[in-house]
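Hi support team,

I submitted a single chain yesterday and got back a structure, but I'm not sure I'm reading the C-alpha cell output correctly. Could someone confirm the output below corresponds to the sequence I sent? I've pasted both exactly as they appear in my results page.

Thanks,
R.
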Amino acid sequence: MALSTASPLLWRHPWPLLLASGSTARAAMLRSAGLPITVEPARIDERDAESRLIRQGEASPGGLAAGLARAKALEVSARNPAAIVLGADQTLSCEGAAFHKPVDRQAAVSQIMRLSGRSHELTSAFAIAGAGRIVATGAASARMVMRPLSAAFVETYLDMAGPAALSSVGGYQLEGLGVQLFESVDGDHFTILGLPLLMVLESLRRLDVLAG
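Hi R., thanks for writing in. Yes, this is the structure output for that exact sequence:
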C-alpha cells in the first residue's frame, strides 16, 4: 500500500483510505469526492456471516447491513492495522423477504419479476475501522418503487445490461440502464448506489483524517 498522494488540505492520513469492498460504484463515489483510496475486498463469506448475525438475533435489514459492514472492515483492518478501513454493505427487503445479488441470469429474471410493481427498501451501511477496531458506523435507507414490468421487457433489459445486472443487490444499477425499471425513488442517491457518502465523509471529519 503506497503512501497517500492527496493534498494535505483534504486527506490527512499518511495512507489512502482502504475500501474493503470490490464495488466499482463505491470506489467511484469516494474518488469523485477527492479521497485517495486503495481497494482490498474483505475475505469473508457474506452468507455465512449473515447467518451468524441472524442466529445472534440481528434479523432486520439495517442490522444485517451494519453487521456485514463491520465484519468486512474488521477483517481488512486486521491485515492492515496502520490504515483507515471502510467496510460497506447493502441489503434489499421487499414485503418481508430479503434479496441478495442474483447468482445468474435466471435468478435475476426471477428477482426482478418479484419486485415488479412493488415497493422495496434499500439499506446501505458502513463501518470504519482502525487498528483492528470499529471507530465509526452509520446507515441510511431509501424506498424504491419498481413499475409493473413484462417478462419480455425484463429479458430485454438483461440483454442490454449484461453482467453488470448481477453485480448489485436487486439485479439493477440505478445509475445506468436500471433506471428504466422504476416508477419512483425516495432517498439519498448515494445510499441507493450502496454507500451513505455524506455520513461517511462526516465520520472521517470527526476522526480528523479529512479536513473540514
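A quick pointer for reading it: The beta strands are 17-19, 37-39, 84-94, 97-99, 119-130, 133-146, 182-186. Let us know if anything else looks off.

Best,
Support desk
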